[in-house]
Task: structure prediction
Amino acid sequence: MIFRLLKTAIFLLPIALILVCPLNVQAQEPVFDPEYVISDHDLTNYQTMTLNEVQGFLNEKGGALANYLTVDIDGKMKAASEIIYRASQEYEINPQHLLTLLQREKSLITKQSPSIDDYNWATGFSAYDYRNPVPRFRGFSTQVDRAAWRFRYYLEHPWQFRYKVGSKANTLVDYNDRWLVNIHGRYITAKNAATAGLYTYAPHLYDNWLFWTIWQNWFSDDEDQKFANGTLLRIIDKQGVWLIQNEQRRPFYSESVFLLSYKFKDVKMAKENDLMDYPVGPAMTFPNYSLVQSSLGEIFMLVNNKKRSISEKIFRSIGFHPDEIIEVNENDLNTYEPGVPILSPYPSGALLQDSETKAVYYVKENTKYPIIDISILNTNFPYSHVSKVNPQELAEFAMGDQVKFRDGTLIKTSDSPSVYVISQQKRLPIPSAEVFETIGYQWDSIVEVDKSFLNMHDLGEVLKID
Result:
């Protein structure tokens, strides 16, 4: 059925449709989102605590770390609070983040009688699954320093890692993860850099749920952030509706967008001061690749904030049915820029295999990009289906460049010990095992390739770390 929506230039909910009284707003129970564990600001706000406040926090929690002294990386004897604070300021990582990490990994903030190993592997840095930890990173000071460094390094070099904002990636699953996998599945698409960094550090749902739980108990601003994710709000005596999402308030400028997923009866009234605690986020829009028809009769596919005209023949070939068209007002599309018309059945990309030659291509828009080796196919498109088509269909597409390994891939050849990481489409030599393990790469993630595939990527500078 085509949705027939009211014609309004600006989304202003009629008061009569929201027959609710102003709420006496109370904090709502937070819900774990595996794709948004903490905000980027939570990770990088390194001025949340002074040195005295770090020490006071350790005293309050009553663990042995409150009185722990050891040699820092500069060779000087220091208290644990000084080591934590020094690392947070040097790498501009929130000291609360480091405290949460220490509790998640070894319960050092509250444990009264830690073992030597608890101190030696305090943040879990270089302590990988199913392998012995790397000996040179043993020691409380080194663990705290390298953990803070690692998160800063990720923020400044995200293209060198598998978990990136907006990219789908699988998590590792062991016994502790199973109940979370049953709820959320094993794949995540990180919504922000902090979350991607947390999964890069520990690629398990359970580890990140535990981090989130500790964070909520100790450092969350939820007492000030009064509304749960997903709450719909309207300020008393004002028009307009907001969605609380990821610690932001996102406005609806289109009634059509609102009615696709929400109902008027779910909108709550709130005081303006309560809503002002949330920064304004991006406006709510139609889902990407929505098929809409304007009041003038034009049909568009909405792709990355652009409206691209499309014919019935093409949208049917993509797999849309006319019943899926959303009828909207011209004003609903004012925020979308005009885009080039869609003339291909593959506007979002697809893997196609020639039914005769068995060659595989990544096809997007009007271009086919050859994938010349299965290692590239498995690395770049691990979750994608390959569809067989006849050669005549493939012949209609222009030939593009060969698909190369995606950024963050670790590669080597069988006849050389040299390992490279793909970074901005160049291969950067990793100079030593120490650098490899310091960054946090895992040996079983290396893809062994033929030398000709290695040389597809120009040689870049040797990977260096501070």
About this structure: The longest helix spans residues 140-156. The chain has five domains: 15-27+228-275, 40-218, 290-338, 350-399, 410-454. Residues 346 and 364 are 5 Å apart (CA to CA). Residues 40-218 form one domain.
